[in-house]
Amino acid sequence: SLRTHKRHVHTPRTITVLGETYPTDDYTNLPPTIAALLERRLHVTPPHPLNTIRKLIASHFEGFKSYDNLPAVVTPELNFDSLGFPPDHPGRARGQSYYINRGVMLRTHTSAHEVDIYRETPRSGGWLCTADVYRRDEIDRSHYPAFHQTEGARLVNVADMDKLKAENEELRRGLSASRIIMEDCPDFDAITNPLQASHLPETVLPVAQNLRLRITTLFMSIFPPSTTPLHVRWTPDLFPWTSPSYQLEVRYRDGWLELLGCGIVLDDTIARSSHDPASERSWAFGMGLERIAMPLFGVPDIRLFWSRDERFWKQFRDGELRTFQEFSKYPPSERDVAFWLPVGVAKPHAASHAAGGEGVGWEENDLWDIIREVGGDLVEDVKLIDDFWHEAKGRRSLAVRITFRSMERSLERPEVNEVTDAIKAKLTERLAVEIR
Ligand code: FA5
Ligand code: MG
Hints:
Elements: H1 2-10, E1 14-17, E2 20-23, H2 32-35, H3 49-60, E3 65-67, E4 73-74, H4 76-79, E5 99-101, E6 104-106, H5 114-119, E7 126-134, E8 146-157, H6 161-174, E9 180-183, H7 201-222, E10 230-239, E11 242-252, E12 255-265, H8 267-272, E13 280-288, H9 289-297, H10 310-313, E14 333-340, H11 364-375, E15 379-390, E16 395-404, H12 413-431, E17 434-435
Parallel strand pairs: 3-7, 9-10
Antiparallel strand pairs: 1-2, 4-6, 5-6, 7-8, 8-13, 10-11, 11-12, 12-13, 14-16, 14-17, 15-16
Helix pairs in contact: 3-9, 6-7, 11-12
The chain binds adenosine-5'-[phenylalaninyl-phosphate] and magnesium ion.
């Protein structure tokens, strides 16, 4: 098959990640460009803004234990199974996550550590975990295949509801309408986002309230008055290990930017960590640090966080909020690349998400990875601009528009052409596409 061929020719027998050597297999899809990012450790490197945000969050959650150095290489059991992801969840696919081999992968979220951390958390304890996470996502101003999350969780004894309600009252009094404008979220949507069967409203709703109030007051305290009022909205969300679940978005540059997902942890997950779901509830959240840093520091593009350019680094001081001054941008160049997918790739609507189906495998994320791998930091944006099925040929054609831009210099036309040609050659070699 196409995939076996690709692996045979291009995947080395072992790969080394963070000093550890692993055998590869038919699941291996971790490109060297992504593996290199594991060494950066931006969230614990002053004066990087992500390190400052990590510390600001930690100072808001007094008494919570912090985990900031857990390695990014985890098992799919921890990343998915411990959280009740169903076996056919799309997030498990090679097309969405980075695998070193079938048994080890890069965490796709800090929730991968929930069960292990809960296990060593005392009753009524709280914890935070900040880390780099990896997903085969699209690239644009607010999405990057590597980013950072802070996970936070708090266990509450069901016997302590009165204390919690009093705390909630206190938190609510501290909310200032001139600092934060909050759109309402229903407490739960009984049909799509219900309370867990074993949970009574009186032992869950105060916990869900506390979750939303702790997060809202966090943002009120870290965003300085000059950036407020901050306009946020809560909407229902879905995660395999929480119910009810919520999402928080913030108004940013004429749109809504998603900051975090959160919810009430399922009894199953609590039980897996050897806590007692009958007497303990827990809320948990996972927030994107770059998504907070963008409005907070005025950083307009998520890729800047990975910059090695001193014009980026020298603008920050450890622990301080500063408004980022954009440095001059060089002009962009666009190139369109159109190609036929290999014979045998199914019609788009006939394609199934399940692995190992009929026909030739085609993962759209392989395309983005190869373009990035060859074009590196010169690739600012890639967009699918055409996707059609040619009935007579029985083949699917795609076209992408690649925007090249350097943060350091003006690109000359021959250089852009050369990179585009190298991308075409790599796509032909690796994905067996036919350039049109
Ligand atoms: C999660 O990752 C859940 N683990 C969060 C969670 C934790 C839910 C605990 C319940 C309990 P989600 O996929 O929505 O959820 O990602 C969380 C946040 O990470 C997003 O809200 C966003 O701020 C950030 N994020 C997600 N994808 C990207 C990306 N490609 N680039 C930058 N930030 C991202
Ligand atoms: Mg989300």
